[in-house]
């Protein structure tokens, strides 16, 4: 568990499909070890609820509850997903406002052509079409209030993971014994 001197951190990773969110989240967990909860929008929305991404969808509240629960139990928490501002902005703003610990938000900014190239290497490449990717793509869909750090496509995965660890202070926090 985290200690009073190192309360749980909240890290939000957002961006378009194939921007590297899941890879960064996985890299954070691999580098940090136990004590990080990964809350993946796609898992909750598509796998748990099998719901389309719609305004007011049930997944929004479940994501919120899951993140809050993990934080309340001392887990540093990484929330990752496209998390469109139009659908998730209000929930994200409330999470950021309510979390008493350190919070760090990142938007992985990848141009559409790079999204296509990266998508072609994913296991779901045959299931998701270019047309669908175009429909989902939102250029620079950042949260209001200048709360996100925009990470350019040119930032290598390992450098992005290291940056998030350093800026969030997780590289300096003693490892948890959770789970």
Describe this protein's structure.
With 179 residues, this protein is α/β, with parallel strands linked by helices. It has one domain (10-168): 3-Layer(aba) Sandwich (Rossmann fold), CATH 3.40.50. 42% of the residues lie in helices and 16% in strands. It has seven helices and five strands; from the N terminus they run βαβααβαβααβα. It has a five-stranded parallel β-sheet, sandwiched between helices. The longest helix has 15 residues, at 58-72. The radius of gyration is 16 Å and the shape is globular. The model has no long low-confidence stretch (mean pLDDT 91).
Care to give the gist of this entry?
By secondary structure, the chain is α/β, with parallel strands linked by helices. The chain has helices spanning 21-32, 41-48, 58-72, 85-98, 112-119, 130-136, 157-168; strands at 10-15, 36-40, 76-81, 103-109, 148-152.
- In quaternary terms, these chains amount to single chain
Give helix % range. 40-55%
Q: Major sheet: size, sense and barrel closure? A: 5 strands, parallel
As for the CATH topology, it is Rossmann fold
Domains, number: 1
CATH architecture: 3-Layer(aba) Sandwich
Report how far the terminal alpha carbons are from each other: 9 Å
Kindly report the spatial arrangement of strands forming the biggest sheet: 2-3-1-4-5
CATH evolutionary superfamily: P-loop containing nucleotide triphosphate hydrolases
Instruction: Extract low-pLDDT stretches.
Output: none
Query: Mean of the pLDDT scores?
Result: 91
Q: What is the gyration radius calculated from CA atoms?
A: 16 Å
Secondary-structure element order, as H and E?
EHEHHEHEHHEH
Beta-strand proportion: 15-25%
Count of helical regions: 7
Instruction: Please report the first level of CATH classification, the CATH class.
Output: Alpha Beta
The overall strand count is 5
